[in-house]
Amino acid sequence: MDTPRRVEHQQTDRGYVPVYATGTVEQPWSSYSKTDHEVWDTLYRRQRELLPGYACQEFLDGVARFGLGDGGIPRFDDLNRVLRAATGWEVVAVEGLLPDEVFFDHLAHRRFPVSWWIRKPDQLDYLSEPDLFHDLFGHVPLLLNPVFADYMEAYGKGGMKAYAIGPDALMNLTRLYWYTVEFGLIRTDAGMRIYGAGIVSSKGESIYSIDSASPNRIGFDLERVMSTRYRIDTYQQTYFVIDSFEQLFDATRPDFTPIYNRLADRAPATAGDILSTDRVFTRGTREGWATNADN
Ligand code: HBI
Ligand code: FE
Q1: CB neighbours (10 Å) of residue 50?
Q2: Fewest C-beta atoms under 10 Å: which of 77, 91, 156, 273?
Q3: Starting at the edge strand that comes first in sequence, how are the strands of the sheet with 111-115 ordered?
Q4: Are 91 and 80 in contact, with CB atoms under 8 Å apart?
Q5: Residue ranges of the Biopterin-dependent aromatic amino acid hydroxylase family profile domain (predicted)?
Q6: Which residues lie at CB < 5 A from ion ligand 2?
Q7: Is the minimum distance from the CB of 13 to ligand 1 under 6 angstroms?
Q8: Is the CB of residue 113 less than 8 Å from the CB of residue 24?
Q9: How far is the centre of ligand 2, averaged over its atoms, from the C-alpha of 276 (Å)?
């Protein structure tokens, strides 16, 4: 397997990382090593044992329907048979982070890009770029949920429009992705549960986002989220909480142009701020918070 072509570095929501302008590739399933399959099994087993009581039921149902725990790295072709039949989405293998407009175009056409490579055994707890476990285990199970699947397509279409408007609009939209798709919580009758991929694919942050007194937990509000900076190097200081996936999808129905115009005059909140207009579920103790700049 020749190393993927690194085209350039780009400031993205995960910091200054290589960005591949390439399109999609075939999943090199036969090239995965025994160690690669063992890394998948280790990460899967660890999260599967932890997540009941932490992840929302829709996520757990998706994991079960895909059979992600059947042993070894799943074959995208197998997953796509289930996924296409359920919501018309499909997984496509990519080299890694894509330029925003390439990424948005995939989402707008119900294609979710998944990095074909998996982290090394010494990177189990943190790596800077999204690997196969983050993308596949974190993001794909919820694409079986029809409402969330619609939200992700709408997000992609919104991304194409934001990209055409300019960098400020794009920043607002990236914050929306960050605080929902990557780090979102949802209220359930049983209490707060996780749906964000960046959380469910991380053992430490799964526990922290639900059990810790340190972060704020604030009710989702579209413009509040779009004007809130975030952290890429630590656990989140604030988690935004939706009441349902329908609420999230409904919030993205209107055209965002007037919102971008309003937000252009509004100073962004810091990652740890609590505003007087917030619906505060938990006011964090701020224990252990980093003091350097947000993104
Ligand atoms: N590319 N492959 C890939 N996966 C992502 O999650 C991703 C991306 N490019 C850009 C990006 N995410 C973020 O900027 C989103 O907020 C748009
Ligand atoms: Fe992600």
Answers
A1: 14
A2: 77
A3: 24-25, 90-94, 111-115
A4: yes
A5: 1-295
A6: 130, 197
A7: yes
A8: yes
A9: 30
Q: Are 18 and 5 in contact (CB under 8 A)?
A: no
- For residue 119, give the nearest of 44, 181, 50 by alpha carbon: 44
Domain ranges of the chain: 8-282
State which of 19, 91, 103, 128 you would mutate to test the pocket of ligand 1, scoring each by most atoms of that ligand within 8 A of its C-beta.
103
Ligand 1, atom 2: nearest CA belongs to which residue? 97
The whole-model pTM stands at 0.92
CATH T-level fold of 8-282: Phenylalanine Hydroxylase (1.10.800)
Q: pLDDT digit string (tens) for 152-170?
A: 999 999 999 999 999 999 9
Pair 160, 168: CB distance under 8 Å: no
Q: Specify binding-site residues for Fe cation.
A: 134, 139, 182
Atom of ligand 1 nearest to the CA of 177: 16
**Ligand located closest to 117 CA:** 1
Distance from the CA of 153 to the center of ligand 2, in angstroms?
15
ipTM of this complex: 0.97
**Ligand minimally distant from the alpha carbon of residue 181:** 2
- CA end-to-end span of the chain, whole Å? 35
